Q: What sequence folds into this?
């Protein structure tokens, strides 16, 4: 006697026959084989409806960009939404069940993002796709429209365009921000902070995603409150070689030499600066955080302080950590602030942060005075997150001694 067993998979019937003595063994084997296939093939749909605000230019096209191929992998002009009416644009896509999706809405570039009221840039919209979902997004304006009617920089800045460096493939723009007392106090000299990714430092109109570090506002307010010394900030733009220039590479060394041998002498001869390493700092985030550490590690005679936010210490198999660990020369004199968030890429960078912080302490760098660490709970890998905590490295490096 035979037993019949019917299985319906993807609406295709399969009829399988078993002998009674082996039915249970075959049943479980079949389930073990088919269940992973069932789960791996499961998909859910996401529908995003965007209601654009009044004042959106008539010629505008609306794009969605996010962390999946169907969302363009953060290319702001790759996935155009479908225009349903003059004010409604729609995206529909299928993704694996259980995917965590993150995305933003733009008009084709990072300078024209969907923006909340009062100039606040929203974080990523995040959705766990555990079922078919529909999302309606409303917002107040676009970043380029808002910033066009609001000043992006507080205080006086001077621009130096297209400066070339030996060994670098691309010229750099340099922006110099001066503290509020600079013009009035003709004899005072100031510490200097050099910053990487200069497009993102002062002006939301030029920043990567419409959000800047707000160094001008933060430094100015901290100085007026008597928390930090007044400082000069020198911001250097990045280039298409950003990763290599901010790493332990030949381009990275050429970038260091460019700042050390060309930019710093220009700044010191043009402005009233305090020139010693104890008054000269460098700061950046992500690869810029790594670069900032390399600056004080390679040239502590020039740069005595580093602000390393969300630093990529783990790249190239923790190369810089291994170099610091095996270094047996004379102790290098510098002070380092480092931090990390806890969400997304920040969590992936955490092992590098932990190892470098602990390593410096074991090398004798004193906690809170020579090395300081901070974990920003809930923070993502964004300029918005860095702007919220940038007061910490500023106070660590330039705090008024009481």
A:
């Amino acid at each position: 006697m035979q037993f019949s067993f019917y299985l319906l998979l993807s609406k295709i019937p399969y009829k399988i026959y078993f002998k009674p003595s082996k039915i249970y063994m075959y049943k479980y084997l079949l389930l073990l084989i088919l269940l992973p296939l069932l789960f791996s093939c499961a998909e859910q749909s996401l529908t995003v409806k965007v209601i654009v605000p009044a004042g959106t230019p008539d010629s505008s096209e609306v794009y969605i960009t996010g962390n999946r191929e169907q969302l363009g992998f953060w290319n702001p002009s790759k996935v155009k939404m479908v225009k349903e009416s003059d004010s409604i644009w729609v995206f529909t896509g299928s993704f694996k069940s259980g995917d965590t999706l993150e995305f933003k809405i733009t008009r084709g570039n990072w300078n024209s993002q969907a923006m909340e009221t009062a100039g606040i840039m929203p974080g990523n919209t995040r959705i766990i796709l555990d079922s078919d979902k529909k999302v309606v997004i409303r917002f107040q304006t676009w970043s380029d429209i808002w910033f066009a009617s609001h000043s992006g920089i507080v205080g006086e800045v001077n621009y130096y365009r297209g400066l070339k460096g030996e060994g670098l493939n691309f010229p750099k723009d340099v922006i110099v921000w001066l503290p509020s007392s600079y013009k009035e106090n003709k004899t005072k000299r100031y510490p200097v902070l050099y910053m990487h990714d200069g497009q993102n430092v002062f002006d939301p109109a030029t920043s990567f995603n419409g959000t800047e570090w707000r160094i001008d506002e933060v430094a100015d307010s901290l100085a007026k409150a008597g928390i930090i010394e007044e400082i000069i900030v020198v911001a250097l733009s990045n280039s298409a070689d950003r990763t290599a220039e901010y790493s332990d590479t030949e381009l990275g060394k050429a970038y260091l030499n460019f700042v050390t041998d060309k930019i710093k002498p220009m700044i010191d001869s043009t402005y009233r600066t305090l020139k010693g390493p104890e008054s000269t700092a460098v700061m950046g985030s992500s690869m810029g955080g790594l670069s900032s550490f390399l600056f004080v590690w390679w040239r502590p005679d020039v740069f005595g302080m580093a602000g390393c936010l969300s630093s990529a210490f783990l790249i190239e198999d923790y190369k810089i950590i291994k170099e610091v660990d095996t270094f047996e020369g004379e102790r290098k004199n510098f002070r380092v602030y480092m931090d990390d968030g806890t969400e997304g890429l920040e969590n992936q960078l955490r092992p590098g942060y932990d190892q470098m912080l602990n390593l410096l302490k074991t090398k004798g760098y004193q906690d809170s005075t020579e090395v300081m660490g901070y974990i920003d709970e809930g923070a993502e890998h964004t300029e918005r997150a860095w702007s919220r905590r940038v007061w910490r490295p500023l106070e660590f490096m330039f705090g008024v001694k009481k």
